[in-house]
Design a protein that fits this description.
mainly beta, 2 domains, 3-stranded antiparallel sheet, 3-stranded parallel sheet, elongated
């Protein structure tokens, strides 16, 4: 299944696609705009054909987080030997990170360094499976796993 911006053929920009989200069925969640039209593509596995039911539900959603867009994030200065923790969520965020799955939403965090140092970044111990794309300053950094 795939969803496209607008209802024209050829199709507009793909807003999301998914296959086998729940068993062999697909599911997508995409942010939409009131009064705008969207085109949904539904296909079968290989040459399979048949009838089906397409369920569409809407959640009014809320405001996106303040660090929703990469261009709007304010870097935090990281100091040597001090752990810095970023907290937040990606609920009601939009998707603008090309390396994540289509339709994925993320919040952004950025940091800059006062000197050259090794930086460890982890997502361990979190209770949700969210993805964050982190942007780095041009200061030389060697990631440590």
């Amino acid at each position: 299944m795939a969803v496209y911006d607008g209802c024209t053929c050829p199709v507009g920009t793909q807003l999301g696609c998914n296959d086998d989200y729940c068993g062999l069925q697909s599911q997508l969640m995409i942010p939409v705009v009131a009064g705008h039209q969207y085109l949904v593509e539904v296909g079968g596995y290989g040459s399979n054909t048949g009838t089906g039911i397409l369920n569409v539900s809407c959640d009014a959603g809320g405001e996106p987080p303040e660090n929703d867009n990469c261009s709007d994030v304010t870097p935090t200065t990281i100091v040597a030997n001090v752990t810095t923790t970023f907290t937040g969520n990606n609920e009601d965020a939009t998707g603008d990170c090309a390396t994540l799955d289509p339709g994925a939403t993320e919040a952004w965090e950025a940091f800059t360094l006062t000197e050259k140092m090794d930086v460890t970044i982890d997502y361990c111990g979190t209770s949700r499976h969210s993805n964050w794309c982190t942007s780095f300053s041009p200061t030389p950094v060697r990631a440590v796993s």
